[in-house]
Input
Amino acid sequence: GNTVTTYTTCSNPGGSNGSSGSSGYSGSSGQNGSRGTNGSFGIRIVETGQVFSQTCSLRLDSFEVAPSDDGIFEPGEMVFLQDIYYHNSGQICYPRGRVVATGVGSNRWVHFEPADILESVEEIPPAESIMLREYLQFLLKYPAQTPTNQTFRTVATIQPYGLYQRINHPIPAIERQIEIKYPVELSKINGTPSITFQEEMPFALEVRNISTKEIGPETKEGRILRVILRTNNEYNGRSVIVRSLNDRDQSADLTAPIVYDIAELREGQTWSLTGTVQFVNADFQENSHLPLIAELHLG
Output
């Protein structure tokens, strides 16, 4: 018989995707590495090959205040600093040609002009010092107000400074104090604090030279030395009579100030003014107060 072949097509679509797996765990940190060796710092001088751990280090180490010619530093006087030393405490020589600027700080009693700054270009080897060859000068200021009923004495702080000029960096420095006063001193007026009409009150005052030089218009320097006796403008000067025993019992009222010129006052010498004061105006009310003022004028 006949053979019949029959073909049948079969297909398999495949299975579906499975579910996702869970996340894994983080890994552990690795171990620290070994410590590196310490680094080093040095300053190498190319010309010599030397290496240093520290640069130069300057400080203004010391200075002296030049003595005044009369032993007194007074307002308006120029003061000079000398023997100014710089010390190098570093390891490297401070090179020649590098400018170190030196000045004085201005304050209440010190006035320093920038034009007076000293500039040094000296070489300063390690552990050595140099002295500036020039003087450093500044002016002592006058008091803002004239001292009343007290002797003028005060202290000024002298603060020199150094500066690396190229980098404008300050150099450590020291300071010193000096006393400021005038070469002559005026005492207070000694006398009875109250008197009656036509009663005479004795009074006395003194001017003393505390300097080491003679003072007065008849001396070499010719400085004016004058005492003025006066009262306030609000009072009638004709009501008060002053008799000075210094001028052979010369009398004058206080309409205008009474001037006493001291020709010469030697070192340590004292000039005295003695006399009496008398009220001669009967119209003055009781318990009236009239100031008797003594002024010292020094040229």
